[in-house]
Amino acid sequence: MTRKLLRVPAVLLRRDTAKNAELLVLRHENAVLRRQLTRPVRYEHADRLWFAALSSLVPRRRWAQVFPVTPATLLAWHHRLIARKWDYSKHRRRPGRPSTAG
After folding, report:
1. Contact 18/57 with Cβ under 8 angstroms?
2. What is the pLDDT of residue 8?
3. Phi/psi of residue 96, each to 5°?
4. How much is the pLDDT for 7?
5. Are 18 and 59 in contact (CB under 8 A)?
6. Which of 32, 66, 74, 80 has an alpha carbon within 20 to 30 A of 25's alpha carbon?
7. DSSP assignment of 53-90, as one string?
8. What's this model's pTM, rounded to 2 decimal places?
9. b/e for 64-78, b at 16 or more Cβ within 10 A?
10. Is 102 exposed, middle or buried (0-12, 13-18, 19+ CB in 10 A)?
């Protein structure tokens, strides 16, 4: 019984956190749209990071009403980021004969 009573404030607090996250997402989306009023919407890296950070705070059933992008888009952004970071370009050898010392 005590455990159930202690869960009630946690559930209410979680709802407030999700509501605040939704508001932050919508405000940020409005800022992006205002910035690009005449062009198609193109999110910058900071915008993508912001949406990814807030995505864990919004319940999945509310995503369609809140987020301007789908979860698949967030995963695609993450995939591209990781692919860019781990392309191993620093470890590739240059074609041709290796340079001689001195």
Report:
1. yes
2. 57
3. 100, -170
4. 59
5. yes
6. 80
7. HHHTTS-GGGHHHH-SS-HHHHHHHHHHHHHHHT--GG
8. 0.51
9. eebbebeeeebeebe
10. exposed
Largest interatomic CA distance in the chain: 80
Encoding tokens for residue 100? 């001689």
- Residue 25 contacts residue 51 (beta carbons within 8 Å): yes
- Token pair 């900071």 is found at 46
- Tokens 């910058």 sit on residue: 44
Give residue-wise pLDDT tens across range 24-41: 888 888 788 877 777 667
